[in-house]
Structures are given as structure tokens and as C-alpha cells.
Write the C-alpha cells for this entry.
Amino acid sequence: DIQMTQSPSSLSASIGDRVTITCQASQDIRHYLNWYQQKPGKGPNLLIYDASNLQTGVPSRFSGSGSGTDFTFTISSLQPEDFATYYCQQNDDVPRTFGQGTKLEIK
Amino acid sequence: QVQLQESGPGLVKPSQTLSLTCTVSGDSINSAGSYWTWIRQHPGKGLEWIGYISYNGRIYSNPSLESRITISVDSSKNQISLKLTSVTAADTAIYYCAREFSGYNYSWLDPWGQGTPVTVSS
């Protein structure tokens, strides 16, 4: 299985901050990396697909980059509704695997 | 707009078989490029991919669960089912269904259902 290592596991930040989350794959997954947001009591919501493509309807303050084994997810200016847990997921091979998640909390 | 809704028993006794259903609305489960996926989330933990069944009947199960899993579809009801045998407390989780939409050079999980909680306890 491809292991996805996501960091940090938690992050405290303030409204308006720029935050970055990283995800590292145990092998080359090319550009097959997605990012999801999960809020309490809800299923995850797709934000970024193919490492850097913004899903329709997702605000432009969210962005992603990377290829191969190293990927980055950025929120350029935190809004109150962004406090949630974020997951990366590889879809280069089966079984699909997820990072451990990053819980973004209000400072 | 595609929507998914999971349903299940809520509580299952150890060693029994867990049966879950995911009802799809807004699209046919036979739509090309759709891989109907089960994922679970243990309490307070991350996401574990269980397996999928494709629009043309191809099935892949996570090797960690493969011996206990059956994934099937009922096209007449536009539903996907998951059966997990010989459950233990370690199977206590929220179970989600989601559509993996795959194209030529991309795929993603969207949308997801709201999840159905399952507790394994006597």
C-alpha cells in the first residue's frame, strides 16, 4: 500500500493567516493527489483534485501544488468557516489511502 | 445533483454480519466512470478505504478486509451494499459511501454521503 504522511497533525491559526499543510507519499504518485475538508458530523468534501485543480465552487483561497512524492495544500487567508480537518488522498493505486489528517483550530 | 445516503442497523453484535446500504439519487449507478466506494472512519480517527464496485461491476476490496467484505449493487433500486462478516469492536466506525469519479487522467471522491454510525457491542 502507498503510505501518505501528512503534517502537521494539528495546527492553530488566526483569521486571515496563511496556512500550509504537507503530504508526502511513500512512492511516486505523479499528480494523483486530492485534498478534502471534513467538518464535524459531516462527510468529507472535495477541495482540490489532481494536486492543483480547484473543484468547482471551492473558494480561490484554497490551492494545492506538488507532484511525485511531495505535495502542499495552502489556505491563503483563513476564514471562520475553514476551521475543520483536512485530508490528502492518493488515487494513483488501489487500495486508495489517506493522510492522517490535519485538524485546523482557531488560535 | 448526485446525492448518497447510507443506512444501516446502528448496533451489531460481535461475530455477526454487518449489512449497509447506500442509496444513490440524481444519477444511475451504471454511469460510466463511477466507482462506488465504501470508506470508514474509526471514532476520532482518520479515513480507511474499504473498497469499491465500478459502474461495470469490477470490484476491488482493501486487502486488510478482503476476506470479510462483500460489495454488491442492486441496479433496480440504484443502491450499493456492503457486507462485513465476523465483526469485532475494531469495526466500530462511521461508514461512508462516496462516488469515485474517474476520467482519462484523474479521479476523485465526490460526493460523499453523510455517513452511518456502526457500533459493535454485545
